[in-house]
Amino acid sequence: MTGAGPGPTDAEWAAAVEAVRGLPADARVLLICHVNPDGDALGSMLGFGLGLRRLGVRHLQATFPGPPGVPEPFRWLPGVELLVPQDDADPDPDLVICFDAAGDSRLGDLVDRLGRAGTSLVLDHHASNTGFGRINLVDPHAAATSVVALGLLDRLGVPLDAEMATGLYVALTTDTGSFRFEATTPAVHEMAARLLATGIRPGDISRRIFDTRPFGAVRLFGEVLGRATLEPAAAAGHGLVWTYATHDDLARHDQPAYVLEALIDSVRCTAEADVSCVVKQSGDAEWAVSLRSKGAVDVSRVAVALGGGGHRFAAGFTGRGPLDEVVGNIRAALGAEVLVPHS
What's the pLDDT at 5? Predict the structure, then answer.
């Protein structure tokens, strides 16, 4: 099954509850989120992990593929002590739970844990999800994976506390753009109210996640935004604005790669373009591409066509080859009429 349907069925929720409730006392549980984890991936995983700990799960690890460093904005999250480098992750867990990954390709070198685990459970909200777990809780209508995570915690009967709520709130606010994006519904605000009722401090969380940046990153953003390119005729006339950042840019300003994750928000505000794109060098001839849409173009279909995934309004993929070739592929995919929804 894929995540393109209306959301998890009662049978799927029941199977997920049984997978957790049926664990023996000495069971080994491994939580995995996607490569280059964002606030939803980490917040959902750590918040849920703390819930499992409250249930009495003793042998519990959380991890993600790639370098083990946690981006600075998230290092303070409750539950961060559950994280281990991918090389130290249990090779043969009894249960693997994956968070915010639309496909197993997003798990990198950790993908082998799926086959070795007794059971695999996927929690996600991407419409492009491939249904790669044995049990898939995929709700494409959910604003964030944390919505699915909280739904499972509720069905497991785990009482919500401030530590769990902090991670889930970070996940919810990052994927809704602080409640500015289209996915923000009455249900989103009702969930936020539940989380805030535990006593967490939204102002402090917002400052840590959205409003704190090294001066070097400010200078870096200025340079990268200065090379932004506007193509009004792209995306079947809906417009494309894009820019790029290299390893040399990061080195010149002495900044880690994660600071670039926020750059897309400064690009997407361009009035003349429906689609915005930031291309970030991630290796030799390898680029992490972030795509955003204001609604006229379904960028998840662009990303899927290029080997990635995501939502209509936010998606991404890994591009390989020279920069101009990667951008050319994006331009070509956006030019395909089938990718532009008609009203």
Answer: 63
Q: What is the mean pLDDT of the chain?
A: 93
Q: What is the spatial distance between Cα 253 and Cα 256, in angstroms, rounded to a whole number? A: 9
Work out the angle between the directed axes of helices 10-21 and 145-156 (0-180°, nearest 10). Answer: 60
Round to whole Å and give the CA distance between 136 and 133: 6
Whole-Å CA distances, 169 to 5, 108, 262, 320: 25, 26, 18, 34
Place of tokens 């040399």: 248
Question: Is residue 32 over pLDDT 90?
Answer: yes
Tell whether the model's pLDDT for residue 146 goes beyond 90. yes
**Residue 22 burial by Cβ neighbours in a 10 Å radius (0-12, 13-18, 19+):** exposed
Residues contacting 107, CB < 8 A, separation 6+: 32, 34, 35, 65, 98, 101, 113, 114
In what side-by-side order are the strands of the sheet with 28-33? 59-63, 28-33, 95-99, 119-124, 135-138
Residue 92 burial (CB count, 10 A): 11
User: CA 274, CA 248: separation in Å to the nearest integer?
Assistant: 29
Q: Is 51 helix (H, G, I), strand (E, B) or coil?
A: helix
Identify how many contiguous H helices and E strands the chain contains and give both numbers: 12, 11
Give percent of the chain above pLDDT 70.
97
- Give CA 83 to chain center in angstroms: 17
Residue with tokens 């361009």: 270
Whether residue 139 is predicted with pLDDT greater than 50 in this model: the reply is yes
CA distance between the termini of the chain: 28
9 three-class SS: coil
Question: Has this prediction a pTM greater than 0.70?
Answer: yes
